[in-house]
Each structure stands twice: as C-alpha cells, then as structure tokens.
Design a protein that fits this description.
Elements: E1 2-8, H1 16-27, E2 31-37, H2 43-52, E3 55-60, H3 65-71, E4 74-75, H4 77-82, E5 87-91, E6 95-99, H5 102-113, E7 122-126, H6 130-141, E8 146-151, H7 154-163, E9 170-174, E10 185-188, E11 211-214, H8 223-230, E12 235-237, H9 240-255, H10 262-268
Parallel strand pairs: 1-2, 1-3, 4-6, 7-8, 7-10, 8-9, 10-11, 11-12
Antiparallel strand pairs: 3-5, 5-6
Helix pairs in contact: 1-9, 5-6, 5-9
The structure holds 2'-monophosphoadenosine-5'-diphosphate.
2'-monophosphoadenosine-5'-diphosphate (ATR) binds at residues 62, 127-131, 151-153, 156, 190-192, 195, 197, 199.
C-alpha cells in the first residue's frame, strides 16, 4: 500500500493522520498515513530512507520545512518563494518534488469557506517567521490594496517584505508603528500562543467590521481569537480551515483526487 505521513519534531499533537484518514476513506484511496517524529540531525537520512522503502509523500511541519526545501530535487514556484516545503512527493523512483500548500490553504479557507475577500482590502499580518513567509505570495497574488507585515522585531518584517516587494503592495514595520484606521483583515501568524500570549499590538487595528484570522487552532478559543472578541470583533476565526485546506491540497497533489473539506471541518471546527 502507498505510504504517506507527516514528519515533525515534536509531532504527536498533529491532526494530519486523522484528516488524511478521513480524506482517504471519503475518496476510496488505499493508503497509509503515519506520524514520524524525527529530530533535525536525522531528518535527511530518515526521509530518504522513507522514500526508498515505499514512501510516496510526506507532509512536513515544524521545524523541518526549510530542511525539506534543501532536500527536494525540484521545488514548485510557490515553495521556492516561501523558502519552505510542507509537502514532499516522489516522482518515479528517485525524483523528490517539494511544494508548499500552506498559502493556498489559507486563501481557500478565506475565500471559499469564510467568504472573506482579499482583493482590494487592507490586510495586516502579525509575525514575520516561517508561518508568515509561507502565505505572503498567495495573498499578494490576490492583489490586496495593501499588505502590512508587522513584527515584534521590526527588522525581520522589513526584510521579509522586501523579498516579496515585486509581487505587490507590501511593507514591513514593528508593532509600535501600527496605528490609525482598523484593517479589513488581520492574520495572526505569530507563535505567541505557544506561551499562551497574544502579540502586543494596538487595539485600534481591529474594528467592528475587521475579520481576524488566527493561524493557530485548538478545540478551545485561542488567545488571539479571545483578544479580538474582547475588542468588539464579530468575525474572529481559528485556523482549522487553513489546516484542513492545506491538507486537501497536499492530498490532491499526491493522489490526483480533491477531497471534500466541509465534512472534515464539521468534525474538527
Ligand atoms: P513560525 O514558523 O511559527 O512562524 P518562527 O519562524 O520561529 O515560527 O517565527 C515566530 C514568529 O512569532 C516571529 O515573527 C516572532 O516574532 P520575533 O521575530 O519578534 O521573535 C513571533 N512571536 C513569537 N512569540 C511572540 C510573542 N509573544 N509576541 C509577538 N510575536 C511573537
């Protein structure tokens, strides 16, 4: 049977086996999908071993996305832009292709599931790490009026914005530089929730009509969703949709069949 899985460190918290298991059942695809907890020092060797012994595809999560980009023989344009790979697939017996479905997953959740437009809107992304980098290209492709990238450390945001400046109206700044009109869409791409925190930004970025989207997810409300609601935001979403949509996009790349995401989201969200 074709073997798939998700590689991370740690990875036991991953929902991917559950999601891909539902996709496989729904589309009648015979495959296995397992968790692989692999430390950075073993990443290259173990991944090559997996593909040498029946592995057909892997999802890649923290902290291996950059290492996966280095390992792949070929990168999709969007993975090249992101500098990170969340999906590896074997073509033939030896050719490893790296792709990145994170941005497509976010865009699909915003536009198709939540009906939140991006084109011509003012968008704020909080955070300038790997999570932000993975979604910048697909968001700019939709031509927002303005995309502001804000980070605790301003330099990192300014540098990242520069890398994407050829794609559209994007600029980087520090949290302290945010003031004025509320944004149409605020996306939390920081890892602040890992320590139970929220980015320390001015409440003026959120108005009643602002949509807040947290890339973090969990069964309970996330700190950022709670923060947004306390500031009067009526449309604050956790990142389950992005998780399920990026998985569906990976599944499609591997199997050529696009699974329905709504039934899976109904179980999770
Ligand atoms: P990821 O792949 O999740 O993006 P990362 O590359 O380590 O992980 O980046 C983490 C991001 O979350 C960074 O933008 C980081 O800000 P700094 O560059 O200033 O460190 C941000 N971050 C983490 N904890 C935060 C907190 N408590 N408040 C605000 N931003 C935070």
């Amino acid at each position: 049977m074709d073997q798939y899985g998700v590689v991370g460190h740690p990875v036991s918290q991953s929902w991917s086996p559950f999601i891909h298991g539902l996709f496989a059942r729904q589309t009648d695809q015979a495959l296995t999908y397992r968790l692989y907890d692999i430390a950075p020092a073993q990443f290259r060797g173990e991944v090559l071993e997996f593909f040498a012994h029946g592995g057909r595809g892997l999802n890649v999560t923290v902290p291996h996305k950059e290492a996966a980009a280095d390992l792949a023989n070929e990168l999709s344009a969007r993975a090249e832009r992101a500098g990170a790979v969340n999906t590896l697939m074997l073509q033939g017996d030896h050719h490893l292709i790296g792709d990145n479905t994170d941005g497509a997953g976010l865009v699909r959740d915003l536009e198709r599931n939540l009906r939140v437009p991006v084109a011509d809107r003012r968008i704020l992304i909080l955070g300038a790490g790997g999570a932000a980098r993975g979604v910048l290209g697909p968001l700019l492709d939709l031509q927002p009026a303005e995309l502001v990238l804000a980070n605790r450390g301003a330099d990192r945001a300014i540098n990242l914005a520069t890398l994407f400046a050829d794609l559209g109206a994007v600029r980087g700044c520090g949290f302290a530089d945010l003031s004025g009109e509320p944004f149409d869409l605020v996306i939390n791409a920081t890892s602040a929730a890992l320590t139970g925190g929220v980015p320390d930004v001015s409440p003026s970025i959120v108005g009643r009509d602002t949509v807040c989207y947290d890339m973090t997810y969990g069964k309970a409300d996330t700190p950022f969703v709670t923060w947004a609601q306390q500031r009067g935001c009526e449309h604050a979403y956790k990142g389950w949709g992005m998780l399920v949509e990026q998985a569906a996009e990976s599944f499609y790349l591997w199997r050529g069949v696009r699974p329905e995401t709504a039934p899976v989201l109904a179980v999770l969200g």
